[in-house]
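Q: I'm teaching a short session on how sequence maps to structure, and I want students to see two examples side by side rather than one. Could you give me a first protein with its sequence written out and its structure tokens following it? Keep the formatting plain so it prints cleanly on a handout.
A: Of course. Example one:
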Amino acid sequence: MNDDTIRNRLRHVYWMGGSPCAGKSTMAGLIAAAHGLTHYHIDQELRTRLPKPEPARQPCLAYWVSSTWDELWMRPVDVLLDDVIRCYQEQFDLVIADLLAMDAGAPILVEGNSLLPDSLAPFLLDRRRALWVIPTEAFQRRNYPNRGEWVQYILSQCSDPDQALQNWMDRDVAFAAWIEGRVKDLGLAHFTVDGVQSIEQNAQRVIDFFDFFDFFGLSGKPVSR
């Protein structure tokens, strides 16, 4: 299947990528529930429905799912950054294949970190169907450790939890900077999350960009075109 065919097959899809701790999943859930879209949560689909990674075809993903948290997070930050980019590239291929296998019906809002700008750009029929949401470093470092018990569970499995957290946060800071750089280089759209605006206001920024109906009743701040 060539790129033109894929672009047309996915013309009903909206894409929201970014980096961890930006509130993407919460925003996407609010938007989808209130506006009648299907929320395709990439992380959830990977956990529950998409095929398990095969070492021969998805070597990086296979390594992640077969390693301990200590083996993963106690590595140098540059290695972690390279790994996460390669993992997201492998995830993206699985997501595209899954979306193509679905019946094209109501609009779908696909959301997740694995929507890398370089991976997605060739499949965009309209570049205003893709938006990246990126947390500031201060927002991420302040909020990530409080995202849920699962964070502390992961850290408890590491030989040096403090160093593991440092590596984790440094990796995500580097990934956010990398994403922002690639979005700008490709002329795509993004906005940053710093905690000043509420999750509803940030959801409204997404709606404004995609030209959705203003169902929150908020003025919102339009995303810069």
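Q: Perfect. Now a second example for contrast.
A: Example two:
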Amino acid sequence: MTRTDTLIVDIVELRRHTGTRRDVEASLALDDMAVADRSIVDGRLDVALTVEAITEGIVAYGAVSGTTRAPCRRCLDDVDTPLRLDFHEIFENDPTDGETWPINDERIDLTPVIREVALLALPLAPLCGDDCVGPEPERFPTGAFEESEPAKDDRWAALDELRFDE
């Protein structure tokens, strides 16, 4: 499997006959594969796709896999989760904004498509296990969460004297 940071496929041969296919396998190492505190581990995604010529352009379909990392919604420890996505996208000479992707100079660039699909699939609130009870008390000093009286602001002192009759 090829290891790369871009995945550009030459489609000249494919477009000669509708229905012609080519398998594409690669291991991508992409930068900036994170949204807030959720990420793709090391930006690494394994790609196994088929690129096929269709009447309107090119269709790419297959699977994208990797590992996601996000904090557990209860205990906040990192949770690594396998990621496996089915992939199906269309490339055209005159792409429809938000629906299809462009063909540039008889090549298709799969990198931005794969990046978008993977980032949209990041888990929102994973759980490290069904039995997770939340943060361990030893991790936080005693009294760290005790409520205290908020500091008074002298500018609002006159409102403290205000009373309403019922």
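Q: What should students look for in example two?
A: Point them to this: The first strand starts at residue 2 and ends at 4. Also worth mentioning: The chain has two helices and nine strands.
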